[in-house]
């Protein structure tokens, strides 16, 4: 069984394992490598949790800017002939977890 960890990236927590590719909120453009603090580490049957978890998670940015799925937003007022339609595409970054140590 591989080692897993819970990491915090830009306010969101993710359960990750080595070699996994995840999509997170948009990171700054000059980011190539991330050193993340582990909040919880699962190694087989042993679970380590607490503030000073002695584990670091290293990740590298695979794709710096990825556009998410398009969302249609409609404002509508009944019986008033008023409607407004907008679209939104959230930007994400794709990262790969290289090492949990």
Strand and helix layout:
Elements: E1 3-9, E2 12-17, E3 21-25, E4 33-43, E5 46-49, E6 56-77, E7 82-100
Antiparallel strand pairs: 1-2, 1-4, 3-7, 4-5, 4-6, 6-7
Structure description:
By secondary structure, this protein is mainly beta. It is built from no helices and seven strands. Strands 1, 2, 3, 4, 5, 6 and 7 form a seven-stranded antiparallel beta sheet that branches. β1 and β2 (12-17) form a beta hairpin. The radius of gyration is 19 Å and the shape is elongated.
Individual helix count: 0
Structural class: mainly beta
Share of helical residues: under 10%
Computed CA radius of gyration, to the nearest angstrom: 19 Å
Low-confidence stretches: none
Properties at a glance:
seven-stranded antiparallel β-sheet; 101 residues; mainly beta; 7 strands; single chain
Summarize the structure.
With 101 residues, the chain is mostly beta strands. 0% of the residues lie in helices and 73% in strands.
């Amino acid at each position: 069984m591989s080692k897993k960890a819970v990491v915090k990236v830009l306010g969101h927590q993710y359960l990750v394992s080595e070699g996994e590719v995840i999509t997170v909120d948009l990171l700054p453009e000059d980011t190539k490598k991330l050193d993340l603090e582990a909040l919880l580490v699962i190694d087989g049957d042993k679970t380590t949790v607490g503030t000073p978890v002695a584990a670091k998670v290293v990740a590298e940015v695979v794709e710096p800017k990825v556009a998410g799925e398009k969302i249609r937003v409609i404002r509508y007022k009944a019986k008033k002939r008023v409607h407004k339609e907008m679209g939104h595409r959230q930007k994400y970054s794709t990262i790969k977890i290289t090492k949990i140590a």
